[in-house]
Write a structure and sequence with these properties.
340 residues, alpha+beta, Ribonucleotide Reductase Protein R1, domain 1, two-stranded parallel ribbon
Amino acid sequence: MSFALDAMIEGRISNYVRQRRRVDYLTQSGVAIAEMLLEKRNNVSAASAADEQEDRWKKPALRLKRGQSAVVEESIEDGVVQVEIIPEEARWNVNLLVGSAYDEVWERIFENAGIPQEYFSELIDCWNDWIDEDSLPANDGAEDDYYETLDPPYLARNRQIDTVDELQLIKGFGEAVLHGGILNPEENNEELQIQVRGIKELFTTYGNGKINVNSAPMEVLMTIPGVDEITAGAIIEEREGAYANVSTLARSGAGGSASALNVEGALNEEEEEDYSFKSTGDFMSRIPGLDTGVSRFVDTQAKTFRLVIKGESAGITHKIEAIAEFDGKSVRYLKWREDP
């Protein structure tokens, strides 16, 4: 019985090792797919006659070329690998949100997170004190003399941060501010407790400090000064061609004689259209009612990408997250993290 038990355990371990190795190979193939798409985006053309069957990488490469996100899912034997490539400029580079010129951006971020206005000044001043090079605290800020009183004590960084998680070391930027929750847990009266949304996912430590309007999600677009919820929705609909798709379907059904083939043809036709914003000027002209000041906060291209690669087989998963740049010849990784 002991021998049989040992054999069974060893068999299961061997089977797990084989399956895990297969999943590792899946994620490695996902890395190769991501690098290929980043290289292909420089040369891909919408005018190419190749259809989806002849060149199945054309559509995701075109999306990357247009500054948009791309998702690819490949089935390999009994496993699946999913590759998601997201322009990192779809978030604010927090290291560049420094000084009074960006106070309005911080205010919009805090406002959309549900943080009361009386907290704004302290949070902004403490952030600026954390990243500036001097040791003189701002009006509501904090420098070494505050952080040295903590347990354990530490010093203000006085330079750019390496990860967004470091924000939690700054006075005022607690767990609730970054990840969401109750801002004032010391308040016993539940009616007076302040529930806020986390701001961590709005930030990165890469990029040029401008928001890529071709890929930024709704919650990021709403933090751009001069962009409210309605305008943010209009931006997403415009860049994805939502209005054009609805119009095309309406035309194909005119007269009550539209067939399923007509509708499908209309959808396929629209899939080849490019509704992305070609430049900041193009963006400003296509979104009505925007203040001219919005242009200094936005961009339409991507140079840095977040890769999320997940392989799965026989119930085993392996995930890789990386930050990558493509210099025109090769991919350079700025950050790499994978599940153990």
